């Protein structure tokens, strides 16, 4: 067997490996942290934030190695208010570095109306977001007032976009859809919001009619927008939209929606309800990584919202020949089971 042939064979075998067989992580990375968001900054650090089970604060961590994320200092950078706006259900923080400053986008309700939730933003000019002062920049307005959560932002070809979840203004029942709009600053959108996806398939309507938690991955001249669907129990899963990066991303016709979930519960690996993901890369930028939460058991007692055991996990993404991501199935890990609060 020639050296060239051996190389080609090894490469083919490597490409054929499913995501679950790729080199992995010490999962779960962080216990009892849902809705994880990780960003690899130019300083070489991974910055991490997530929903805490008490729903009362925002924490940040940083590390150069994702595998030791659970051991990194968790610094509380902001706490909920005692009353009024931002006083309940502090959910889904995301940390983004834009034009030389750090921004935390998050969801919050009010103590007197916990589910009357909206999008809010914090700003910090320090080089290290675990330091400096976080300034409240108020509500991020979307054009109408209704149940809104899970904001993310991405720049494509020099234009920054906001993608988020909201109840449509014409909805006659409780349901959520994913929207996108251009941003004219890190604190505001410009132009009308465009609905990209609403629950239509059975797998998007298990328990609740939900499309939420968009996350963007720009690769191979395309934009892949994942989102989470159904109730936050074992039904929770990822769907995906895709569009050409050169397209008008605010045009619904530019997007193609997968008719099937792209990532879902696996009895084989013992991971249930994988979702609310983020994307990052290896330190050298050559390997794409899916970060998400899941539980190590299927059956939940009571409301899933009060079950704290959604743990942060990560795994390598592989790519199909057509240039689309293959997330595989949630990889097995140490099953920590149920943990007390």
TrEMBL record:
The keyword Hydrolase applies. The keyword Isomerase does not apply. Keywords: Glycosidase, Hydrolase, Signal. It holds the Pfam family Glyco_hydro_43. GO terms for molecular function: hydrolase activity. InterPro entries: Alpha-L-arabinofuranosidase, Glyco_hydro_43, Glyco_hydro_beta-prop_sf. Residues 1-21 form the signal peptide. PANTHER family: GLYCOSYL HYDROLASE (PTHR43817), HYDROLASE, FAMILY 43, PUTATIVE (AFU_ORTHOLOGUE AFUA_3G01660)-RELATED (PTHR43817:SF1). Belongs to the glycosyl hydrolase 43 family. This is Glycoside hydrolase family 43 protein. It comes from Massilia agri. The lineage of its organism: Bacteria, Pseudomonadati, Pseudomonadota, Betaproteobacteria, Burkholderiales.
């Amino acid at each position: 067997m020639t050296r060239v042939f051996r190389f080609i064979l090894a490469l083919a075998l490597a490409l054929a490996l499913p995501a679950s067989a790729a080199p992995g992580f010490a999962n779960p990375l962080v216990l009892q942290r849902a809705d994880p968001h990780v960003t690899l900054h130019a300083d070489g650090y991974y910055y991490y934030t997530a929903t805490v089970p008490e729903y009362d604060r925002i924490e940040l961590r940083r590390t150069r190695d994702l595998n030791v994320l659970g051991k990194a200092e968790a610094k509380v950078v902001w706490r909920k208010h005692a009353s009024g706006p931002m006083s309940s259900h502090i959910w889904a923080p995301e940390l983004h570095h834009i034009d030389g400053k750090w921004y935390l986008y998050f969801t919050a309700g009010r103590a007197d109306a916990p589910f009357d939730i909206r999008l809010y933003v914090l700003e910090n000019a320090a080089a290290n977001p675990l330091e400096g002062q976080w300034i409240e920049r108020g509500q991020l307005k979307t054009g109408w007032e209704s149940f809104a959560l899970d904001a993310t932002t991405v720049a494509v070809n020099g234009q920054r976009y906001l993608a988020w979840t909201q109840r449509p203004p014409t909805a006659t029942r409780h349901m959520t859809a994913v929207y996108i709009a251009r941003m004219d600053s890190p604190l505001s959108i410009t132009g009308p919001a465009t609905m990209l996806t609403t629950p239509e398939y059975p797998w998007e309507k298990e328990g609740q009619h939900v499309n939420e938690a968009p996350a963007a991955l720009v690769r191979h001249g395309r934009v892949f927008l994942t989102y989470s669907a159904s109730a936050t129990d074992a039904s929770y899963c990822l769907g995906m939209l895709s569009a050409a990066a050169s397209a008008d991303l605010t045009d619904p016709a530019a997007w193609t929606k997968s008719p099937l979930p792209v990532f879902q519960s696996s009895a084989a690996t013992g991971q249930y309800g994988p979702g609310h993901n983020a994307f990052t890369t290896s330190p050298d930028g050559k390997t794409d990584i899916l970060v998400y939460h899941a539980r190590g058991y299927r059956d939940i007692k009571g409301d899933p919202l009060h079950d704290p055991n959604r743990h942060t996990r990560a795994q390598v993404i592989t790519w199909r020949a057509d240039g689309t991501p293959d997330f595989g199935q949630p990889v097995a890990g140490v099953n920590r089971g149920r943990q007390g609060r």
